[in-house]
Amino acid sequence: SARVVVLISGTGSNMAALLDAAADPGYGADVVAVGADRASAAGIDLAKQAGVPTFVTPFRAYPDRDQWNTALAEEIARFEPDIVVSAGFMRILGPAVLSRFTVINLHPALLPSFPGAHAVREALAHGVKVTGATIHFVDAGVDTGPIIDQVTVRVEPDDDERSLHERIKRVERTMLVDVVGRLARDGWTLDKRHVRLGSPEPGPEQAP
Ligand code: GAR
Predict the structure, then answer these.
(1) What is the dihedral of CA 95, 149, 133, 131, to 10 degrees?
(2) What are the tens digits of pLDDT across the range 126-180?
(3) Cβ–Cβ contacts within 10 Å for residue 200, how many?
(4) Is 126 labeled as catalytic in the residue annotation?
(5) For the complex shown, is ipTM > 0.90?
(6) Which atom in ligand 1 lies closest to the alpha carbon of residue 115?
(7) Where is this site: Raises pKa of active site His (predicted)?
(8) Which of 1, 120, 180, 197 is most buried, taking the most CB atoms under 10 A from its CB?
(9) Is 0.90 topped by the overall pTM?
């Protein structure tokens, strides 16, 4: 099974969905640890109750972002992950983490629209009729990496940030479980910005 470390900052409902999925041995991925940037992240208690190792690397305990990123990378490395999943992790990851691990991020909007920390609020304020969620590989930018999958959600006339985010989270959980399982079982290829799930197709020289 692929080893997965999940990073969270809050509730951790997407992390919990991954834990549920990984309970099935056929899923292909194991959540080997859950980490957070703050001790108050409720999802840390959820993970503990599920018997999953946890760590907290508090952003405020370090003099600067680089030192925090380095400490976080060391914590993650202890669990030797194949994939790091940022699921509601509200901090920007730097080169100390990104140079060592394959990181995917879950984002509550249809990127490249509405990157950043307030995606649901900004989509509502913009008046879009369709929004959704994106899973992408994390690169040096903020929510700019190659897109792995997206799912749409309609904005209803009476939506507020809370109701819309709740419907987005419902589809996020399904998409995250699907994508992590496929990455783990089938691998992926990346050609410039284009992500393809599954092993590479044989080139012409290998064709019978
Ligand atoms: C999710 O909707 C995720 O897309 C979002 O935080 C929520 C976490 O929910 N992430 C971002 O906004 C990242 N910029 P959860 O803790 O219940 O999984």
Answers:
(1) 130
(2) 999 999 999 999 999 999 999 999 999 999 999 999 999 999 999 999 999 999 9
(3) 10
(4) no
(5) yes
(6) 14
(7) 143
(8) 180
(9) yes
